[in-house]
Amino acid sequence: GDSVTQMEGPVTLSEEAFLTINCTYTATGYPSLFWYVQYPGEGLQLLLKATKADDKGSNKGFEATYRKETTSFHLEKGSVQVSDSAVYFCALSKDDKIIFGKGTRLHILP
Amino acid sequence: DTAVSQTPKYLVTQMGNDKSIKCEQNLGHDTMYWYKQDSKKFLKIMFSYNNKELIINETVPNRFSPKSPDKAHLNLHINSLELGDSAVYFCASSQSRGSSGNTIYFGEGSWLTVV
């Protein structure tokens, strides 16, 4: 069945470091891909999305490119801030379902 | 205005009790969901409704019963609560079913603790 695999955390970085959180998916057809972010004590918020191959989603300095050939949607940011500390979820949607990865907790140290 | 609102935010209750969590969305969306998030942050879909019709019903104990009086509301009723039901429950909504680019909008969660 369809699934999403993302790197296990926690990921701990210093402020201004480069961030990559890996995400790969398994799906038939052409899913849409998403990154959601969950700040402490809050619900999930959409961070960015891409609906077809080679699309790049971007928001708040974060980027991810839909790579069909490698079935990946890795999240990147060039310079992280303490305020980026959160749990990040990769997800795919197809038909009636959205499937989430297990989440990656990110800690940014000042 | 909160787009997806759920109440209560915190709920502590004893085993064996029956409780409900209410959810309302003011986005005009057709589809609503309930997700359960465990202590490891793993997010699992429980139910999905489209225009008051149940379209996704994952393997969830039948102690959990969703009710959708109209397309803007999806409530979750839980009978005979067990310790393992302790989790954060998220309500969510999206524009329509079957359109895979839709963004899901989440409520802020209801923290349920069963003691």
Number of strands of chain B: 11
Order of secondary-structure elements of chain A:
EEEEEEEEEEEE
Percentage of residues assigned to helices of chain A: under 10%
Approximate helicity band of chain B = under 10%
Give the terminus-to-terminus CA distance of chain A: 41 Å
Average pLDDT rating of chain B:
90
Report the C-alpha radius of gyration of chain B, rounded: 13 Å
The number of helical runs of chain A is 0
The SSE order of chain B reads EEEEEEEEEEE
List low-confidence stretches of chain B: none
Describe this structure in words.
Chain A has strands at residues 3-6, 11-14, 19-21, 23-26, 32-38, 44-50, 56-59, 62-65, 75-77, 86-94, 97-100, 104-109. Chain A is mainly beta. In chain A, a hairpin with a 2-residue loop joins β10 and β11 (97-100). Helices cover 0% and strands 54% of the residues of chain A. Chain B has 115 residues and is mainly beta. Chain B contains no helices and eleven strands. Chain B has strands spanning 4-7, 10-13, 19-25, 31-37, 43-50, 53-57, 64-70, 73-78, 87-94, 105-106, 110-114. In chain B, a hairpin with a 2-residue loop joins β7 and β8. Chain B is globular, with a radius of gyration of 13 Å. Chain B starts with a strand and ends with a strand. The relative contact order of chain B is 0.33. The mean pLDDT of chain B is 90. The interface between A and B is medium-sized, with 26 and 25 residues.
